[in-house]
Request: fold
Amino acid sequence: MSQNMSVHGEWSSRWVFILAAAGSAVGLGNIWKFPYITAEYGGGAFVLIYLLCVLMIGLPIMMAEILVGKRGKASPINTLKIVTQETKRSNFWRIIGWMGTFCGFLILSYYSVVGGWTIAYVVKVSSGIFSQIDNLHDKTLIATQVSGVFNQLMANPQELILWHTVFMILTMVVVVGGVQGGLEKAILYMMPSLFIVLFVLVGYAMSTEKFVEGITFMFKINFSALLFSECNNGYCTFNGQGILAAMGQTFFSLSIGMGAIMAYGAYLPKHVSIAQAATIVVLSDTLVAILAGIIIFPIAFSNGLEVNQGPSLVFNTLPIAFGHMSYGSIFGTLFFILLVLAAWTSSISILEPPVAWMVETGKFTRLSATLVCGILSWALGLLTIFSFNILKDFKPLAEFALFKDATLFDLIDFLTSNILLPLGGILIAVFVAWFLPKALLLEELEMQESNWLYRAWLFTLRYITPVGVGLIFLKSIGALT
Ligand code: TRP
Reply:
């Protein structure tokens, strides 16, 4: 039998777990990343594939991760050890814990850099620099001024390092205190406020002149924009990268594939419905991503901005909206504060698995473990920072067509979201659906075998999830070589 409670403590209620998992899922992935990669792959069709991936891959894997965590009640590395020993399965599966932990370091390294940008924007927006743009009546001039602020930030490694450091310290402070302490309260207020601010921004987006164009871009399904690239004389080359990106985004946005949700599942009190919790988390995460798109695209189109501009998209569109609104500085500051909070509740879930493992070895306190992991990840983050300035032209894999423009940041992002997370996801799906005894699954899910939800879940996790991830994966890797 498994232990009754994790050594790191337990969530004080089911709702706290749901809030914490939703806090982990909702973050920069939804508001910063989702809009710009949707634009990169042409809009509607990408969104459709993303939603399909969320349903067929994301939700089943999230349930599987929570289940394994709840059984093992330890850090992902030890949870896998405990569960494989209990069920007498091969040590091979322990790779899930190790790979996930490694992947977490990489993700946190750049997540903290972008988290730093959002802190920088709290300061910039509150200083009122964007409210003066309303006096300029020329749209192009406004756009140039706003993007100038972003470009200046990117060109300044010292400033980037400062904000990256601040963000990493914030993350470390919460993780040292243990996830329950400050976290429970922060998320309790943050999530509802975030929804309110997003809805107000949707209202603003609706008032812009190109609202319909923005919405059409996001929802009109155009497969050729997603699947084909480089058309010459009516002959287009097939390119599966968009589908791989939609799948990678599913993993990233839902925080699955590396054990973050597994680690949170380990702190679950008894008698929590895993299916219900996972569904609520997945729905809120998806809603926030869709709202972000509904806000950003109309604003971008209405101001003549290029939507396919990559990571700068949110930072170059929303300040224009705040510039035009009454009380824009106050409202904009509030928005970026909430974005910092959303990023913060995500970053702690990325740092928690390695810290929990180090504490379990008995050789570290929470403080020393957090210091070691945080500093390592911080140092790795410098690579991301430099890819926006001094190493901007360093394209290590330029000889491969797919990576011809990829900076170090692009490569780390590709490796984590599109390779390591899906790989971790397949392994989790196969391990849970094919190698764990049914009785164990039913016990942890607290379901009867006759329950159709249980059957649908197991069927999807057995056949659809691994095959889907595998196919997308092989197709895209094949395109590489
Ligand atoms: N899901 C978060 C976001 O959308 C990021 C995140 C938190 C994450 N924990 C993770 C991504 C674990 C991958 C794996 O911003």
In short: The first strand starts at residue 228 and ends at 232. The radius of gyration is 22 Å. The mean pLDDT is 91.
